[in-house]
Write a structure and sequence with these properties.
- Helices cover 41% and strands 15% of the residues.
- Helix 4 runs parallel beside helix 6.
- Strand 1, helix 1 and strand 2 form a beta-alpha-beta unit.
- The protein has a single domain, classed as NAD(P)-binding Rossmann-like Domain (Rossmann fold), CATH 3.40.50.
- The chain is of the alpha/beta class.
- The chain has a seven-stranded parallel beta sheet, with helices on both faces.
- The structure holds NADP nicotinamide-adenine-dinucleotide phosphate.
- NADP nicotinamide-adenine-dinucleotide phosphate (NAP) binds next to helix 1.
């Protein structure tokens, strides 16, 4: 609840979820829909977003689909404009869309992959957070959640650029929280270990049953969304209880 004005009725609250077509983003969209949010679902693949929409059970007028490649420079502005034209407000932003190629050493990485990793995992979430914060400030509050990764902490070989982007996203979250807390805006970075999604290629050294599920990450998101008005979980680290990496 904002300190400056009455909160909107539950069904009037609006959440934007990037990368909502599958994996963690879909699980987050389902949880937010179950809490009566209206949604804006963003990714590049229409069929997957339509499937997410169907699973939420929300009518079309409460489940806007926006197709966008967030690694392109104009995409964050276009997405936010489309959302605001439709709903006129934003209460929750979940910057979830992310990507990394299979482990590749930095010197062997293609220049276009380097740019894409930074644009999608770091630039786009910051650009969307900036636009959301402008509107949330006008509204008297809101919540911005950034899905980072344990790669930022574990810094594995072959994931240097991805780890740098996610570490940057965590640093942005913490610094922007300091800037935006007087405006009633919560910021949180969720830092998950391995999650069983299509982002993680099949590999016999990985026990997928031991990985986190997308729903478990979505639970952490809802912990932030439902946190008391005077408290903000600025960072949540979530690791699988048992290590999915089998010893050789
Ligand atoms: N899986 C893990 O072990 C793990 C661990 C820690 C953190 N994470 C983070 O969690 C987030 C979600 O990952 P996930 O595992 O759920 O991945 P995923 O199953 O591959 O889903 C990624 C989602 O992002 C969308 N996306 C990808 N590139 C995009 C682009 N350029 N523009 C717009 N949307 C794009 C995808 O849809 P389209 O391809 O249709 O665009 C899809 O909906 C990512 O930020 C990832 O870094 C994952």
């Amino acid at each position: 609840m904002s300190e400056r004005g009455a909160p909107p009725a539950a069904e009037k609250r609006v959440a934007l979820v990037t990368g909502a077509g599958r994996g963690i983003g879909r699980a987050i969209a389902l949880e937010l829909a179950a809490s009566d949010f209206s949604l804006c679902l963003v990714a590049r693949t229409r069929d997957q977003l339509e499937e997410t929409r169907a699973l939420t059970g929300l009518p079309k007028e409460r489940s806007l689909i926006v197709l966008a490649d967030l690694a392109t420079e104009d995409a964050p502005d276009c997405v936010m404009q489309t959302l605001l034209d439709c709903y006129g407000r934003i209460d929750v932003l979940v910057n979830n869309a992310g990507w990394a190629p299979p482990r590749t050493s930095t010197i062997k990485m293609r220049a276009e992959d380097l740019d894409r990793i930074l644009a999608l995992n770091l630039r786009a979430p910051i650009a969307l957070a900036r636009l959301a914060a402008l509107k949330m400030t006008e509204q008297g509050g809101g919540t911005i959640i950034n899905i980072a990764s344990s790669a930022a902490r574990k810094t594995p070989a072959g994931e240097a650029v991805y780890a740098a982007a996610k570490a940057g996203l965590i640093a942005f979250t913490r610094a922007a929280f300091q800037e935006l807390r007087p405006n009633g805006i919560k910021l949180s970075a969720i830092v998950p270990g391995l999650v069983d999604t299509s982002l993680i290629p099949h590999n016999k050294r990985l026990d997928r049953a031991m990985m986190l599920s997308p729903a478990e990450v979505a639970d952490a998101v809802m912990q932030v969304v439902n946190s008391p008005a005077h408290a903000c979980p600025v960072e949540i680290t979530l690791e699988p209880q048992f290590d999915p990496e089998r010893s050789r």
